[in-house]
Design brief:
The complex is a heterodimer of chains A (329) and B (329).
Chain A: E1 5-19, E2 28-41, E3 45-49, H1 56-63, E4 71-76, E5 79-80, H2 86-95, E6 96-99, H3 113-123, H4 132-142, H5 159-171, E7 177-181, H6 189-206, E8 209-214, H7 217-223, E9 226-231, E10 234-240, H8 241-246, H9 251-259, H10 299-303, E11 309-312, E12 315-317, H11 320-328
Parallel strand pairs in A: 3-8, 3-9, 6-7, 7-8
Antiparallel strand pairs in A: 1-2, 1-4, 4-5, 9-10, 10-12, 11-12
Helix pairs in contact in A: 3-4, 5-6
Chain B: E1 8-19, E2 22-34, E3 39-43, H1 50-58, E4 66-73, E5 76-77, H2 83-92, E6 94-97, H3 101-104, H4 111-122, H5 127-140, H6 146-149, H7 159-170, E7 177-181, H8 189-206, E8 209-214, H9 217-223, E9 226-231, E10 234-240, H10 241-246, H11 251-259, E11 316-317, H12 320-328
Parallel strand pairs in B: 3-8, 3-9, 6-7, 7-8
Antiparallel strand pairs in B: 1-2, 1-4, 4-5, 9-10, 10-11
Helix pairs in contact in B: 4-5, 5-7, 7-8
Classes of the chains: A alpha/beta (329), B alpha/beta (329).
């Protein structure tokens, strides 16, 4: 497992301070990510799904070391990302890239896109002033951007094209690994399909690995080979795509799947409706964090945190109900 | 249902705006009906005129816009009403909920104040009665702790709760017609499922009609009785939800249905509609979808097709492909 895995996340924990108290050492924290473990294999697309506030983006940012973590380890090719020195980190930055949800706010509005794409290449010394234009045009073509756009400014592009620029900006460094944080959520259906296909093409051409963060379970099913389901910063279930979509174990995963509207009026299904809202992450429920909304909650769920265990090869679940069912059979 | 008079009848509605680049025909001569107790969905991508249609029905477009055509609600032409009369209809007979509950509520007024405001404005009741009615409404939309909620400010509630409050305010005066503009787009899937269920239940209880605007075909399939597909300010297809999903006719509708990844049906590659929505300025007479259409013929670039059906059914399409069918017969 260690050999083939590109990224290993081990017992990751990230706490944010909420209130600075002047005279007390007991600051209040929000645990955005709580004891999350998974790995991403080379050439695969790993999906992270969950509702807002589940810690998806925090994990993505932590892997790229865009922020510090509170506990745990993140390894890239077996090396702890947080123990690298400046020089090693600088090299690693080229290998790992980020694609954001809203490319417009992540592009400099006063920089022509040709310059925006050239900047990282020149900065890292990966191109000279002479051949940089050639490389930029090559990447633009790769990402489906007509090269005559090279002198335009970000505001001149449509949403779909801007996302292509965002992807081109990541691809120009020839990375091994890309974290894509809700890259298609802001796009219209017809444009969304174009961008999803682009992600797949790039993966085939360059043997990329993705961490694909999304709240849209249909998009994740289409793109990802393995998927982790997060709820309030905790991994509830982790499995291959087939296992997760055909045999979901955790009640939260089941509810999430049943909540997705299916575009077929002949299939109006019975839904598992969850009660209530997401609890406040600053004071998460005791025991299993999902117990306040779980239709099958038992007494044990309120008191004990379920263990994240492998039930079948590659299929991990953290749920007392599944534990009991296993014990009975 | 067709024999009955429609509750809302939109006839040759046009909404034009003057912009720096020229005249923007955001909505350009559309027709549709909504019958009592029926849910009609308007689908389309951003910029196709869905929201402008809703706003023109509500009479909420800015004065700089030019609205033409007829909007008949229960026999009254809304476009001919004075501002005062329109104000009386809005909230009473016609009500609307918006995409962003956070920005449509007043942040410095409590939920209770905002709810009683509507009631006091439109109904001859005392403040005490209004407060009592507010509590009932809050209960009706499935929020417990009503006493506490009416004393809270919008920022103290979650997105799902706020959308419920919005629905409660919209339904305060028992409208005959509810317009919902992307009511669940900003919500998480599990909350979306709750809100859709709630709207469905309330609609059945009160027998009101609903005009739902959305880009999500999954939502359409779940709630719609009839569907209106819009593209670039025109209706390109309309019919019952079963017909539209089982037998879509317009290449745009077909494309939309194929481009969306669907839970449980895996494809290697997603179908894409090439290109993007045209700018709505200075469009020549033509099918506006022509440059993205794989079936584009000569006539498509020269004349605008009309919305009609090839038999007497309700399933209508604006596409030259089907005109030819009629001609060849």
């Amino acid at each position: 497992m260690t050999q083939e895995s590109l990224i290993q996340v081990h017992q990751l924990e990230k706490k944010y301070k909420t209130k600075e108290k002047m005279f007390s050492k007991n600051n209040e924290y929000i645990k955005a990510v709580d004891n999350v473990t998974f790995h991403i294999k080379e050439g695969e697309t790993f999906g992270l799904v969950g509702e807002s506030g589940s810690g998806k983006s925090t994990i993505g940012k932590s892997i790229l070391r865009l922020q510090d973590i509170s506990n745990g380890e993140i390894k890239y090719h077996g090396k702890n990302v947080f123990e690298l020195d400046k020089k090693e980190m600088r090299h690693l930055r080229t290998k790992m890239q980020f694609v954001f949800q809203d490319p417009f706010s992540s592009l400099n509005p006063r920089l022509r896109i040709g310059d925006a794409l050239a900047e990282p290449l020149l900065d890292h010394g990966l191109a000279t002033k002479k051949n940089v234009k050639e490389k930029v045009m090559e990447t633009m073509e790769l990402c489906g951007l007509p090269t005559y756009h090279i002198n335009k400014y970000p505001h001149e592009f449509s949403g779909g094209q801007r996302q292509r620029i965002g992807i081109a900006r990541a691809m120009i460094m020839n990375p091994e690994f890309i974290v894509a944080d809700e890259p298609v959520s802001a796009l219209d259906v017809s444009i969304q399909a174009q961008i999803i296909n682009l992600f797949q093409e790039l993966q085939e051409k360059r043997n990329l690995s993705y961490l694909f963060i999304s709240h849209d379970l249909s998009v994740v099913e289409h793109l990802c080979s393995r998927i982790g389901v997060l709820y309030l910063g905790t991994m509830m279930e982790l499995a291959s795509r087939d296992q997760l979509y055909e045999n979901p174990q955790h009640p939260y995963t089941k509810a999430l799947l049943s909540a997705v509207p299916i575009p077929d009026p002949t299939k109006r299904r019975e839904r598992i409706l969850l009660k209530g809202d997401l609890p406040n992450p600053a004071s998460p429920p005791s025991g299993c964090k999902f117990h306040t909304r779980c239709p099958f909650a038992m007494d044990i769920c309120k008191n004990e945190t379920p263990v994240f265990k492998e039930r079948e090869p590659g299929h991990f679940v953290a749920c007392h109900l599944v534990d009991q069912e296993k014990a009975n059979t | 249902m067709a024999q009955q008079e429609p509750l809302l009848s939109v006839h040759q509605l046009k909404a034009h705006f003057q912009s720096e680049d020229g005249l923007v025909k955001a909505v350009d001569g559309i027709n549709f009906d909504v019958y009592q107790g029926e849910t009609v969905c308007i689908v389309g991508e951003s910029g196709c005129g869905k929201s402008v249609t809703a706003m023109s029905i509500m009479g909420l477009l800015p004065d700089t816009s030019k609205v033409e055509g007829e909007i008949n609600l229960a026999g009254k032409d809304l476009t001919k009403l004075s501002k005062g009369n329109m104000r009386r209809i809005r909230g009473n007979e016609l009500s609307m909920i918006f995409q962003e509950p956070m920005t449509s509520l007043n942040p410095v007024m409590t939920i209770g104040e905002q709810m009683t405001e509507v009631l006091l404005e439109h109904q001859a009741i005392s403040k005490k009665q209004a407060t009592k009615k507010s509590l009932e409404l809050i209960k009706m939309v499935g929020i417990g702790r009503g006493e506490q909620i009416i004393k809270s400010y919008p920022h103290q509630l979650s997105g799902g709760m706020l959308q419920r409050v919005m629905i409660a305010i919209a339904l305060a005066c028992d409208p005959k017609m509810l317009i919902a503009d992307e009511p669940t787009t900003a919500l998480d899937v599990t909350i979306q499922a709750q809100v859709l269920n709630l709207l469905q239940d309330l609609k059945e209880e009160t027998n009101m009609s609903m005009l739902l605007i959305t880009h999500d075909l999954g939502v359409v399939a779940e709630v719609a009785d009839r569907v209106v597909v819009m593209y670039a300010g025109k209706v390109v297809e309309q019919g019952t939800v079963e017909e539209i999903f089982a037998n879509p006719k317009h290449p745009y509708t077909k494309g939309l249905l194929q481009a969306k990844p669907v839970l449980g049906s895996r494809k290697k590659k997603l179908y894409t509609i090439p290109g993007q929505v045209p700018k709505l300025v200075d469009l020549k007479p033509s099918c506006y979808f022509a440059d993205r259409c794989e079936h584009c013929m000569k006539i498509c670039t020269q004349q605008t097709p009309e919305l009609k059906s090839d038999d007497s059914s309700e399933h209508k399409v604006a596409c030259w492909l089907y005109e030819n069918e009629v001609v060849h017969k």
